[in-house]
Amino acid sequence: MTHVLVVEDDVHNAAVIRKILEKRGGFRVTVTENGDEVLAMARSGEVRLVVLDVSLANTVHDGAPIGGVELCRLIKSDPRSVGVRVVLATAHAMRGDAERLIAESGADDYVPKPIVDHEAFMSQLRSLLEEAA
Fold first, then answer.
1. In a domain, 104, yes or no
2. Which residues make Cβ contacts (< 8 Å) with residue 121, sequence separation at least 6?
3. For the segment 5-53, what is each residue's pLDDT rounded down to a tens digit?
4. Other C-beta atoms within 10 Å of 1: how many?
5. How would you class 131 by CB atoms within 10 Å of its CB: exposed for 0-12, middle for 13-18, buried for 19 or more?
6. Does the pTM exceed 0.90?
7. What percentage of the chain exceeds 70 in pLDDT?
8. Do the domain assignments include residue 105?
9. Structural domain boundaries enclosing 73
10. How many domains does the chain have?
11. Where are the alpha helices (DSSP H) in the chain?
12. What angle (nearest 5°) sits at the alpha carbon of residue 22, between those of residues 18 and 25?
């Protein structure tokens, strides 16, 4: 069973994303906003995909606050986790935001929040996982 990590600091958003991934995708899901835990799980080889909020109000790594863009850079720059697919999830959905955030973070893709079209979201994730296989 594919293990997906959801990094989200809003309890409601985390619950919605978890439900979509478990019910529609059949994925095993872990939700956290702990930066150290995110990196450890990504490096472990256990997680194949991370759905990562861009604006993380309470996330800390090595004792310092860290946002989703920087956390993604750390995942993608580490040889142990470079193959993990990362999808940024954010309410920043203005024209050009997706391209800018992907370029800044090294993420594989982007999804605007709230996630309204659950089937399109699942199709997007499945495509990313197939590309990585």
1. yes
2. 20, 111, 115
3. 999 999 999 999 999 999 999 999 999 999 999 999 999 999 999 999 9
4. 7
5. exposed
6. yes
7. 99
8. yes
9. 65-83+93-111
10. 1
11. 11-19, 35-44, 68-77, 97-105, 118-132
12. 120
